[in-house]
Amino acid sequence: MLSDTWKLIAVAICLVLFTADTVLKPQDKPNRMVFFELHRGESPTVIGMMRDDLRKLPGTGASRIRDALARGETLTVWQYALRKTEDGSYQEVPDRQIQLGSADAALVTFGARIRLPND
User: The pTM is what?
Assistant: First the structure.
């Protein structure tokens, strides 16, 4: 039978190994929305795509989306809308999913600017 000392040593070794695995293992970045502007019509529309989905496409920045569309792929992205909250401030919220096609390839730019309405 193991003595209490050996039991404590075994528990300590397990805790050290667990802690080392947790601390030394690279942490994955959380999946987040990456924003772009779609320049259809009079004013640009804010669109977003999840980072993990975007990273599956070759290239960098907006070229990932533009190149995929130019190759004939259809992409589904979120279109965002500006909504006024009860306290009078504005919030950019996902409005609906839209499809982008090859005609949209030249209309997508990286980053997005929020344009507040003139009240």
Answer: 0.67
